[in-house]
Each structure stands twice: as structure tokens, then as C-alpha cells.
């Protein structure tokens, strides 16, 4: 897909609505700009001030977040990151997604972090097409804030 005339219009075409910006849980800003780059803080899968799911990610154990559920949570976290960018500079200022970093609270032995973080990457591809192709890290961690299963941060290039 070529550069879209309006990313906001693209969201409407996809039936996707950006949520309100999640208020910071500590001493940080949801997004900051330096030059032509916007860096988001790590975003959790919050909806209306609540986590959509809690726990560590693995397969088949009771009390564990399933990989597909964590993938959906990564998508929500990416939407929250886009909301932070939109609030700072406007969604239509985005030129391209440069990098995605996804952290996955992983139970012992779980190594499917890349598939979980695909929830964020696939969403960005749906919205931005070629401009959504990015570098990425998918990192397994022991714990995340509030017991979240995933946390996603973005670096995006914006218009000068």
C-alpha cells in the first residue's frame, strides 16, 4: 500500500478507533518528540483504565495467559502507543514506523514472544502498509507493571 493520504481516514476504513491516552502510572510522559522521531513510553493493554488481561504467557497451564490472548493484548498496547503519538503530534504526522519493542511476561519455558508481539506488528501493517514495516525486538521478561502480560513501545518518524 502506498503512503496513505490520511492515517486517520485509514483507521476509519478499518473500523479502528484510537483509545484515550492512558495516563502515566509513574514519573514519565506517554510520548516525547526529538527531531523527527517520537518515542512512546511502554504501553500496557489498558482499556478504560483497566488491564484487559493479567498474567504470564505460556501454553496450556491454568492461570496462564494463552499466546493468542497475549497477541490481542499486544494489539491493544500498540493502539495505546498510537494514541500517545496522536495526542502529541497527530496521527497524520506519521511518516513511518521505525521500531517496535515488545516485552512479554513469560512463564518458564515459553519462547513464543515473536508471535505474541505480532499482535502489534500486524496492526501497524494493517494501518500503515509499507510505512508500517519496522525493526523489532520481542523480549521475554519475568514480570511487567501491574501484572500485564505484554508491554509495547514505538519509535515513529514524523513530518518535520
Automatic annotation (TrEMBL):
Residues 9-156 form the Endoribonuclease L-PSP/chorismate mutase-like domain. This is Endoribonuclease L-PSP/chorismate mutase-like domain-containing protein.
Amino acid at each position: 500500500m502506498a503512503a496513505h493520504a490520511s492515517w486517520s481516514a485509514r483507521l476509519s476504513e478499518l473500523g479502528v478507533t484510537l483509545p484515550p491516552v492512558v495516563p502515566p502510572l509513574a514519573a514519565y510522559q506517554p510520548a516525547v518528540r526529538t527531531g523527527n522521531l517520537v518515542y512512546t513510553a511502554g504501553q500496557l493493554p489498558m482499556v478504560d483504565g483497566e488491564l484487559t488481561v493479567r498474567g504470564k504467557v505460556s501454553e496450556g497451564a491454568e492461570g496462564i495467559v494463552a499466546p493468542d490472548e497475549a497477541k490481542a493484548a499486544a494489539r491493544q498496547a500498540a493502539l495505546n502507543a498510537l494514541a500517545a503519538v496522536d495526542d502529541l503530534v497527530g496521527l497524520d504526522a506519521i511518516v513511518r514506523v521505525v521500531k517496535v519493542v515488545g516485552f512479554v511476561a513469560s512463564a518458564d519455558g515459553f519462547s513464543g514472544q515473536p508471535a505474541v508481539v505480532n499482535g502489534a506488528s500486524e496492526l501497524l501493517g494493517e494501518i500503515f502498509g509499507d510505512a508500517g514495516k519496522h525493526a523489532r525486538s520481542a523480549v521475554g521478561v519475568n514480570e511487567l507493571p501491574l501484572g500485564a502480560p505484554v508491554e509495547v513501545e514505538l519509535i515513529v518518524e514524523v513530518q518535520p
